[in-house]
Specification:
The protein is an alpha+beta fold. The chain has a domain at 67-245: Mog1/PsbP, alpha/beta/alpha sandwich (Protein Transport Mog1p, Chain A, 3-Layer(aba) Sandwich). The chain is 21% helix and 29% strand. The chain has helices at residues 4-28, 107-113, 150-161, 229-241, and strands at residues 67-72, 77-82, 86-89, 118-124, 135-145, 168-173, 176-187, 190-201, 204-215, 244-245. It is globular and about 50 Å long.
Length: 266
């Protein structure tokens, strides 16, 4: 028979062994832990380099303007003309003659018709501007006359029309009324269609002389088409319409404004 004291010691020993076994069992199994969520402060730092903007396609180089500008500070005017047209200013050597069929006049010829007139610039249409047609030449001349008044500036223009059946009228360019006349004349086998302008501003009579030469069909190359001289005169009209004055001191001619041809930009 086991004694009570001995039984108590045995039970105490068993309890101690069981406690140690439980601790060892827990130590052997790794503790399950819930993974921590990364806080905003612990997130990977963003790159401090600036964001690269998407590259834009390079703009094509601006096309060279097809128009050039003639400017005369002395007479306070400027106008545009096609860049491929030839410009000859006063003082340039060798003024044009009738041989080039462009209808240009020399300073001597102009002054003999209109005393006091000064030829300032001549613009010539290239001979190959209208291929396979009866085009024989074209030109625009710009002149001034400071000896004319507003009234004589217009009356001289109409008087030059003579007894021909040409038409006349008035058109306004930047607030200045320009009288205009149409006429035609012949020179051998070439016929010239003419349109003259005269407007008074800044105590000066400004004048434009437009010429288009048309050759005979018999003298043209085989298959050449008849020329539309009105269309070419209309293109030269646009040079006149681009006229700009550098001062607002202008005098307007009387008469209602009307245009002999198409107006606007080239």
């Amino acid at each position: 028979m086991v004694r009570p004291k001995t039984l108590i010691l045995i039970l105490a020993a068993i309890a101690t062994i069981a406690g140690l076994g439980g601790c060892s069992s827990k130590a052997a199994v790794p503790e399950k832990r819930t993974p921590e969520r990364a806080s905003p402060e612990k997130a990977a730092p963003e790159s401090t380099a600036p964001a690269r903007a998407p590259e834009r396609a390079a703009k094509p180089a601006a096309r060279e303007s097809v128009f050039a500008t003639y400017s005369s500070p002395e007479y306070a005017v400027a106008f545009h003309y096609p860049r491929n047209f030839a410009l000859q200013e006063v003082g340039d050597a060798e003024e044009g003659t009738a041989e080039n069929a462009s209808g240009v006049r020399s300073q001597q010829e102009l002054e003999s018709e209109e005393p006091g007139a000064v030829l300032i610039a001549t613009i010539t249409v290239p001979n190959d501007a209208y291929p396979n047609t009866t085009f024989a030449g074209g030109s625009l001349q710009f002149a001034v006359n400071r000896y004319l008044t507003a009234g004589t500036c217009r009356s001289n223009l109409i008087a030059r029309l003579g007894d021909s059946n040409g038409t006349s009228g008035t058109t306004v360019v930047q607030g200045v009324a320009f009288a205009w006349t149409n006429n035609d004349s012949g020179d051998g086998s070439t016929e010239f269609f003419e349109r003259d302008y005269a407007g008074f501003a800044n105590e000066t009579c400004y004048e434009f002389f437009l010429r288009v030469g048309v050759g005979g069909v018999a003298d043209a190359d085989p298959g050449a088409r008849p020329l539309d001289e009105k269309r070419i005169l209309g293109n030269l009209d646009k040079i006149v319409a681009s006229l700009q004055f550098d001062t607002k001191a202008i005098s307007v001619l009387d008469g209602n404004a009307s245009s002999p041809g198409n107006r606007g930009k080239f």
